[in-house]
């Protein structure tokens, strides 16, 4: 759009300068020339206010764990900034997961350990934040997505993909709950990334943590009360942001 506008202005000999301003809610275009992106500060303040309300609700009810998914594909800047502003009990950053090569089991264990430590202090509530791009930061899930996307681009029917996965990918796929399997089978974006806004990573982690805590309770290693993992009535992902026509 900008090149065509420039050509039109040059043709009309209009003394006008065209300046491109980077705009992204994810805040992932920061560099030595751009201190912050248009929209990043606003979305962090709005999200932080909503998260703070959820934190207050969790503290008041004293019996729920809330899992909140925030926007942020390759970068977890929104999740980090909202953590600094709203002070939830835990945040999972995609960059740290990728750098440490944490598995889905290890992430579940980390959250479950935190839940157990809080239970030992008679605290059965909390708020956990995560970016929507977290699912692609988990090595084995990322590899599974690559296999699925390759098969989809080859024209393999969705119903036959599970039978054509490699043995390890098939085992992981069958381990995941049905709602996540369905979402992982969505056709990829043009850049071959998954439709992250449609994958309920927060629901997956809530499901796995609740199962892990119930398992520990049966084994006798967790002696607190049962926890209830809930999702807030909103999800602070890119799909939550309303479109605005100017």
Automatic annotation (TrEMBL):
Q: What does the UniProt keyword field contain? A: Cytoplasm, Glycolysis, Kinase, Magnesium, Metal-binding, Transferase
Q: Is Transferase included in the keywords of this UniProt record? A: yes
- GO MF annotation, one: 6-phosphofructokinase activity
Quote the InterPro entries the UniProt record gives.
Phosphofructokinase_dom (IPR000023), PKF_sf (IPR035966)
The domain of life for this entry's organism is Eukaryota
The cross-references to Pfam families, in alphabetical order and at most eight, read: PFK
A biological process term (GO) from this entry: photosynthesis
Q: Where is the Phosphofructokinase domain?
A: 10-143
Gene Ontology cellular-component terms listed: cytosol
User: Keyword Transport: yes or no?
Assistant: no
Query: By what name is this protein known?
Result: Phosphofructokinase domain-containing protein
Organism per entry: Lotus japonicus (Lotus corniculatus var. japonicus)
């Amino acid at each position: 759009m900008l090149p065509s506008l420039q050509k039109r202005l040059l043709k009309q000999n209009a003394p006008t300068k065209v300046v491109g301003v980077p705009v992204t809610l994810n805040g992932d275009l920061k560099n030595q020339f751009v201190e912050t992106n248009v929209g990043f500060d606003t979305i962090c303040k709005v999200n932080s206010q909503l998260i703070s309300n959820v934190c207050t609700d969790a503290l008041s009810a004293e019996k729920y764990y809330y899992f909140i998914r925030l926007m942020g594909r390759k970068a977890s800047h929104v999740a980090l900034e909202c953590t600094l502003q709203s002070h939830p009990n835990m945040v999972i950053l995609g960059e740290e997961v990728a750098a440490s090569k944490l598995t889905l089991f290890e992430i579940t264990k980390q959250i479950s350990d935190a839940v157990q430590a809080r239970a030992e202090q008679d605290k059965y509530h909390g708020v956990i934040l995560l970016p929507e791009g977290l699912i692609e930061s988990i090595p084995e899930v990322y590899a599974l997505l690559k296999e699925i996307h390759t098969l989809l681009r080859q024209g393999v029917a969705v119903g036959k993909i599970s039978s054509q996965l490699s043995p390890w990918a098939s085992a992981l796929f069958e381990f995941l709950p049905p709602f996540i399997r369905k979402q992982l089978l969505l056709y990829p974006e043009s850049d071959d990334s998954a439709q992250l806004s449609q994958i309920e990573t927060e629901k997956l982690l809530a499901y796995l943590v609740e199962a892990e805590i119930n398992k520990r309770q049966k084994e006798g290693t967790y002696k607190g009360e049962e926890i209830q993992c809930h999702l807030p009535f909103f999800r602070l992902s890119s799909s939550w942001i309303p479109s605005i026509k100017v």
